[in-house]
Design a protein that fits this description.
alpha/beta, Heat Shock Protein 90, 8 strands
């Protein structure tokens, strides 16, 4: 068993607890003075004071281990040394007492160190078990959620498929009414209003179908910067209409990334459109691109009011929305696409400090396939 510490951490800890060390030395000095004040005639009190030397030895050994116990034993021995030759008849016993100082300091120090090691291993084992238990609970909740979403997706897909046929018939009827009506007639106005609602319903049905029937990404080497510029151009009119400025920032020369351009364009459209709609007039939405080791990062940062903390855990839940006419499928679809690319999507937000949506995509060599063993990670944090 090691007595001397093998690094400077022990010395640093002792120096950092100088009040404790000073207190121990003060106790040794006080005992020595009390011992000197005792006379040999009071043998019982003299022996009791002698036993007081064990107190700083035991405390030091418990606090600082074997090395601290031995040091306290040495200090006590130095304080006790002047009394060795006071009585020749007791001299051998007093030398034995000094030996006991060191034995007690060493033994208690080793036991204290062993006890702390066992306690540390126990605490680490408990922490590991707690983490494993939490991971199991999270995995169980994710499995339940996936099962519910699968059932919901099947129902939504069947319902959306059945709705499309009546919508097509209604659209045709409205086109006939509009063709037979004069432009300023009430029939023409009502048919245009009805056509707008039919188109909205048709768009909603397509969103249901895209969520319920996702397809595997067709991975091809793609310039992430060109994709971002294209999406920014598509939403330029929307941003201009809301007096919101868009700025693309590229800090690194990003390599070609293996991804499905159409799917990733849909992700960026959803995320950037949310940022534009959440931003007040005159604000700026930044689209930042950078390379972080083997991961290409895209961040969409707005200056909006932020997301309340109670909404963060539900951001990627299907049909959760705070918009009056929102479907709640935009971020859910974006998450599914990013996970299919074995990437990650994080949201950092807080009331009054805007929102940062960070998308991370693995950088692969062109032509490589997506590894099936990669476990996607999704986080929403404040």
């Amino acid at each position: 068993m090691r007595i001397l510490p093998d690094d400077s951490s022990w010395y640093e800890s002792v120096l950092g607890e100088s009040p404790r060390v000073a207190a121990l030395l003060a106790v040794v000095v006080a005992i020595a003075l009390l011992h000197s004040a005792m006379h040999e005639a009071g043998a019982i009190w003299y022996s009791l004071v002698l036993r007081l030397y064990y107190i700083p030895i035991l405390i030091s050994a418990y606090w600082y281990g074997a090395f601290g116990g031995v040091l306290a034993a040495i200090a006590s021995s130095v304080a006790y040394a002047p009394h060795l030759r006071e009585s020749p008849t007791l001299e051998a016993g007093r030398y034995a007492e000094i030996v006991f100082f060191h034995v007690i300091g060493l033994t208690v120090g080793l036991l204290a160190t062993a006890q702390r090691a066992v306690t540390g291993r126990y605490q680490r084992a408990v922490a590991t078990l707690e983490r494993a238990n939490q991971e199991l609970r999270d995995s169980y909740e994710q499995l339940q959620r996936a099962d519910r979403l699968k059932t919901l997706g099947e129902v939504a897909a069947g319902l959306a498929h059945e709705i499309r046929h009546p919508l097509a018939s209604i659209r045709g009827a409205l086109e006939i009414i509009d063709a037979r009506s004069t432009p300023d007639s009430p029939e023409a106005e009502f048919s245009r209003l009805a056509m707008t609602e039919v188109q909205r319903l048709d768009s909603l049905v397509w969103e249901f179908l895209r969520y319920a029937r996702p397809h595997q990404p067709d991975l091809r080497p793609t310039s992430l910067h060109d994709l971002t510029v294209r999406v920014t151009t598509l939403l330029g009119a929307e941003a201009e209409g809301r007096s919101v400025a868009l700025r693309v920032e590229c800090s690194d020369a990003l390599p070609m990334v293996s991804l499905d351009a159409l799917q990733m364009e849909q992700v960026l459209l959803n995320v950037l459109l949310n940022a534009i709609q959440a931003s007040p007039p005159g604000s700026l939405v930044r689209i930042c691109q950078r390379l972080n080791r083997q991961e290409a990062i895209i961040e969409v940062i707005d200056e909006g009011p932020g997301i309340p903390s109670e909404h963060l855990p539900r951001l990627f839940s299907p049909f959760f929305t705070t918009k009056e006419k929102g479907t709640g499928l935009g971020l859910a679809i974006a998450q599914r696409i990013v996970l299919a690319h074995h990437g990650r999507i994080d949201v950092t937000s807080g009331p009054g400090r805007g929102t940062n949506v960070r998308i991370g995509l693995p950088v692969r060599q062109p032509g490589t396939e997506t590894p099936e063993s990669v476990e996607p990670r999704v986080e929403a944090r404040v």
